[in-house]
Design brief:
The protein has about 375 residues and is an all-alpha fold. It is built from 20 helices and 2 strands. The protein has a two-stranded antiparallel ribbon with strand order 1-2.
Length: about 375
């Protein structure tokens, strides 16, 4: 009986040792050896280990598994395109926009300085000077090459044409009032005296017969007033003014501006425009100063629409992006280039306890098999 028990224990120990060692070797042979072992031209069987030997197939299968079951378009839609994620992104963008762009702590000049445009006021003023100078030169060229007729619209020309008789009537009316005034009488008297004195002895003779020029002044005054009041005078002046106006319209406008020095005008115009713009002063205000409702508009209109459109476009392009990324090939390349030693360390680090249990289970099963074998030998 004692021999029987010793035999069972011996066979159980041997079976446990065989089972445990076999399982331990089987686990090790998953990864080891890392490289094939050769004796001259003969490769030692079972080298390299299973995973290093099937590394290419493993990498390919992992790539297919990731693309077909893990990182699928549906997975991305559930994780990144849900309503909850969209609301969080929208809230985040709204907060950042309000804290960043519509704060009173930073002026427009501060933003420009951050963007590398610290000399923006001077740059803008230089551009304004160039624009004003360019427009001014363009106006001068236009005035030099085009006639007044082509510069003025037909409505303006018709208006001026209609105003000529009115202007003539106003001139004659004022002329009549002047010659009937004391100043006009003195002017007529002075003209008569000048005329008589310019005629020498003949003038003196006329003055002697007619007496003082004052007697002639009344007659000349009446004749002048009659001449002014005559319809023919109005027609004559209207015709003269109309003819001169027609001649004027066919000449370049610059003909009447040739003696003007345009340089001071340009300098004053540039200075006026810069003073009115006051670029440096205007840039010292925050964005909210010029756009007080901007924060509300961005929060209620722009950001929600922008985020919604961005999510819609991103979701529409999701499958195309995943195809362009070629995740299957990326996974395959990464697995294929991953060192086997690191892969072994990773797998064993995760499943170390389970592998130990497999080794123990092999030892237990081997021990049980040894006991069964001992019983069979004893019974036979």
């Amino acid at each position: 009986m004692d021999n029987f028990i010793v035999t069972l224990l011996f066979m159980a120990i041997i079976g446990a040792a065989i089972g445990g060692i076999t399982n331990h070797l089987a686990i090790k042979m998953l990864f080891r050896p890392h490289e094939a072992i050769y004796i001259k031209n003969w490769r030692v069987p079972f080298t390299p280990g299973l995973i290093p030997k099937r590394r290419d197939e493993l990498a390919k299968q992992l790539g297919l598994t990731v693309v077909n079951y893990l990182l699928t378009p549906e997975t991305f839609r559930k994780k990144f395109f849900s309503k909850d994620i969209q609301d969080k992104v929208e809230q985040f963008v709204q907060t950042k926009v309000e804290e960043t762009f519509f704060t009173d702590d930073k002026t427009i000049q501060d933003w420009l300085s951050l963007a590398g445009f610290s000399n923006m006021p001077a740059t803008i003023e230089q551009k304004v000077e160039l624009i004003v100078a360019g427009q001014f030169e363009s106006v001068k060229n236009t005035l030099s090459t085009r006639t007044i007729r082509t510069l003025l619209s037909e409505d303006i020309q018709n208006t001026i044409d209609a105003k000529i008789p009115v202007a003539v009537g106003h001139i004659l009316e004022k002329g009549e009032d002047y010659f009937l005034s004391p100043a006009g009488e003195m002017t007529i008297k002075a003209m008569i005296d000048d005329f008589l004195s310019s005629k020498g002895s003949l003038g003196g003779m006329i003055n002697m017969f007619l007496g003082d020029s004052s007697s002639l002044m009344g007659k000349v005054q009446r004749e002048l007033v009659k001449f002014i009041q005559a319809p023919g005078t109005t027609a004559l002046l209207t015709n003269i003014f109309t003819q001169e106006w027609e001649k004027l319209k066919d000449r370049p406008a610059m003909d009447y501006l040739g003696d003007i020095d345009f340089e001071p005008i340009l300098a004053n115009l540039q200075s006026y425009v810069k003073d009115q713009l006051a670029v440096a002063e205007r840039l010292q205000h925050p964005i909210s100063y010029y756009w007080p409702n901007g924060s509300t508009w961005m929060r209620e209109t722009v950001v929600p629409q922008m985020i919604e459109k961005a999510f819609d476009r991103a979701e529409d392009k999701l499958e195309d992006v995943l195809k362009r990324l070629n995740l299957q090939e990326i996974v395959r390349e990464q697995v294929d280039s991953f060192p086997v030693s690191k892969l072994e360390e990773l797998v064993l680090g995760i499943s170390k306890r389970e592998f130990k249990m497999i080794t123990v289970l092999g030892a237990v099963l081997g021990g049980l098999i040894g006991i069964v074998q001992g019983l069979i030998v004893y019974l036979i």
